[in-house]
Amino acid sequence: MSGERSSPFSAVQRLPEIGDGGPQCRGKRTRSLLQPNTCLRIVECGGEGRPDLVEDAGQSDQGFLDLCLGGPVLGRNLAVEPAKMVAERRELGRDIAPGICRSLRRRIILVRLHLLDGTYELFRAHYGRKDTVTGPDGSDLKATLGIMESTLALLREPGVTHLAASFDTVIESFRNVMFPAYKSSAGMDPDLLAQFPTAEDALESLGIVVWRNIEFEADDAIATAAIRWVEDVEQVVIATPDKDLNQLVIGDRIVTYNRREQKMLDESAVVEKFGIHPESIPDYLALVGDTADGVPGLPGWGAKSASVVLAHYPRLELIPVSAADWEVAVRGADKLAATFKDNQELAYMYRELTTLRLDVPLVETLADLEWKGVPRSRFEQFCSTVGFDPDSIRVHRWAD
Questions:
Q1: What is the DSSP string of 325-337?
Q2: Domain final residue, candidates 105, 121, 143
Q3: Among 43-47, 133-137, 316-320, where is mean pLDDT lowest?
Q4: Domain, as residue range, for 30
């Protein structure tokens, strides 16, 4: 076991490391900061960490969601002793959101908040359109026009009243410091890469709040927004097909929506698709990898083996290092267990890479995200700048 890792990103608040709870240990990630109190079924963290479970948390005025998500990273502060504690933690919120949320204390307004994965939408427009759209300087602008049209189409759908779009303005992020092989702009189509600032301007010209991410990633801003406002709205809809954002799903209060396939995933659908609950998605990606983000995973671990193991041991710390101690039947268990034992530190780092941050400094309020229509003068000025015909873009609602 190596010494404690220090974060290469100064803004990361270091939380207490996760321990094994003594004789019932599963892995070998041990620290003395944890003092489990199984009588209360809580885990109290020493140092500056917040407790994961608190006695009578369901009746607290603070709200169980805040207690569980008090740290800056979703799932980072899940301290566990035996496996049954995770199951008991999940049962606390079974009525609303298994594993995360017990009581929603704030006044809920009957609106849906839509959070658009702008990076994915720009990629989809760039590679999905067959026509050619050339700007005054000869640049390729088909993705920009495409994302404008597709976003206006989303705004024409019933119930889309509050919307924000998040972009990887700079593809590289703090994760590239942690792991240089993480996804980067290397090898990207230059025509696509050059359109990010223009596409962001385009959506702002439609009257949409845009988050331009530099240190963080687009997904981190979406995660921050989803958790910040889940207790204030009827539902948060994350418009993306990316599997890593499924870690945010809470019951049917936070869902992901694949616009291309017209498929929505709530908690039960995530379990059906991956065989695990949303809180285990970062652990799952740590084992199987995520090629889209440059996370390699562990050799030999595939989707089936990871889902079977994590369905029984929801966190990496709970997986026994010896296959003889596994309570699930998995083909090639001995080899998988040996690989996991030899690469635990890599697995923990991969999980940190795939765990979304919840501390992106978003300055907007929920009211700011209400779409009031396209501001005509700003829209026409943008179209004039990039050479678009404003009359050919189907605007169905003007702000003035």
A1: G-SS--TTHHHHH
A2: 105
A3: 43-47
A4: 7-105
